[in-house]
Amino acid sequence: MITITVEEAYQTCHILIKQHSKTFAKAFSPLPRKKRNAVWAIYAFCRKVDDIVDEGQSPEEELAQFEATFSQFLNGTLPLIDPEWVALNDVFNTFEMDEQPFHEMIAGQRMDLYKKRYATLAEVENYSYHVASTVGLMLLPVLAPTTHKELKPSGIALGKAMQLTNILRDIGEDLDRDRIYIPKQLLDDYHITEEELFAKNVEPRFVQMWEQLACRAEELYKEAFKDMHLYPFDSRLSVHGAGLMYRAILKAVRLNKHDVFTNRSFVPKEEKELIIAELKP
How far apart are CA 17 and CA 2, in angstroms? Predict the structure, then answer.
């Protein structure tokens, strides 16, 4: 049997996050090594679930199997062979981890297997909690070992804000998968039909609707940022930086004239570096 060291396991997770999320990799790189490694391991767990749902050959079966594997991991009966599990095991042994958000995130990803339309903003925010806020809750014991319970409400807000940002940026890509995360109630308010949305035209009603949902995201960012002082200094820069970099995606879409159909808006590397630089004392 090939054995892998904990350090090698963390490096595998680090490669994964660099390949799939440059924003998160950039934001959390200033963390102290122990915290940074833990973030990479948690990201690898979440990435695995996401890939099963989006790219799996039999996603329902694969997700059920992954959930069973996670249960084995939790009860200590899983052979620690794969680097992702080796790394996550070290995280659970090092920090005061809560298994509930891990289960909730899997449940949230399962929603994408059967739910492709949302009626209200409340439904969208519930989905956003399950697929994004849960990730924040997983990270909190790592990022703020002594204040993570106090930070739960603002951590939940930050996750929802980031997911709404994803939704606003990825409208076109989601349409290609026959998924609409813009709530029907909001579409109706602006008299936009599904057929019009699938036509992928950036016109005034669409821009106004987009901006209303973006306003809700901005409110959630504001709610999240008010508690940044509760993070220990060595984590504050990374969390605040990640939030600001994600919020900057909204600005990038606006600079792209709200074209979320033919171009994927992104925050330039130079702007990310400026955001981090301005946060440093």
Answer: 24
Question: Would you give the DSSP letter of residue 151?
Answer: T
174, 181 Cβ separation under 8 angstroms: yes
With a threshold of 0.90, does the pTM exceed it?
A: yes
Given a cut of 70, whether residue 92 has pLDDT beyond it is: yes
Per-residue model confidence as pLDDT tens digits over 179-201:
999 999 999 999 999 999 999 99
Other beta carbons within 10 angstroms of residue 11's beta carbon come to 16
Residue 37 CB burial class (10 angstroms; 0-12, 13-18, ≥19):
buried
Q: Which helix (H) or strand (E) holds 51?
A: helix 33-55
Instruction: Please indicate, yes or no, if residue 231 is contained in any of the structural domains.
Output: yes
* 1 pLDDT more than 80: no
- C-alpha separations of 199 from 164, 172, 192, 256, 268 in Å: 22, 10, 11, 18, 29
CATH (domain of 50):
1.10.600.10
| Residue 1 placed within a domain | no
Which DSSP helix (H) or strand (E) runs through 75?
Answer: helix 59-75
What is the Cα Rg of the chain in Å?
19
Rounded distance between C-alpha atoms, residue 210 and residue 223, angstroms: 20
Contact in structure between 136 and 231 (CB atoms under 8 Å): no
Provide the domain limits for residue 192.
6-279
